[in-house]
Amino acid sequence: MTGTNTENTIDALRRIYHSGQAVRVLFVCLGNICRSPAADGIMHDIVKREDEADRWIIDSAGTGGYHVGDLPDRRMRLHARQRGLDLNHRCRQVSESDFDDFDIVIGMDASNISNLRRIAPSPQTEAKIVPMSAFFAPSERYDHVPDPYYEGSEGFELVLNLLQDGCRRLFDTVRTNERQQQQYF
Ligand code: 4NP
After folding, report:
1. Most buried among 31, 53, 162, 184, using CB within 10 Å?
2. Is 100 helix (H, G, I), strand (E, B) or coil?
3. What is the model's pTM?
């Protein structure tokens, strides 16, 4: 999924970052116990390693409310731990105010995106919704982050692979000051 909306939102992030303001990123999936807390943990790890933790505000939420207050799924925590990531997020549901509190709202799949469109309080805030796949490598064969909840270990490994690549590209895309240097669209 690509498009002008995504390009404009990412341009806005770049302007925020290069003006010295903190960039506010919200990752969203259905349950907020597998994909989005993993993206959240991966992105926190990247900005910490790059010594830019104070320039990024990163959080995650779910469109569903089934697991509010829970830690991430045990399987996701296990697979993340094997990559050196501790996931301690407590599940919460996405709200209208998130669309004011964050500069970009990143959905993991088409269902998350359509749910987010219904929650967005205005056309301006709806424009902040971007698919995670916008940050995948051009050669990536997936066009979304598949829900691993009913999958085995491979499903969780796939999610972490897609998210580690995508989050790194998100970070580099925002830090790069020139649109033509990035080839993600
Ligand atoms: P997530 O995975 O959206 O990546 O957190 C899911 C977690 C729980 C459920 C569905 C998806 N659930 O139906 O409980």
Report:
1. 162
2. helix
3. 0.95
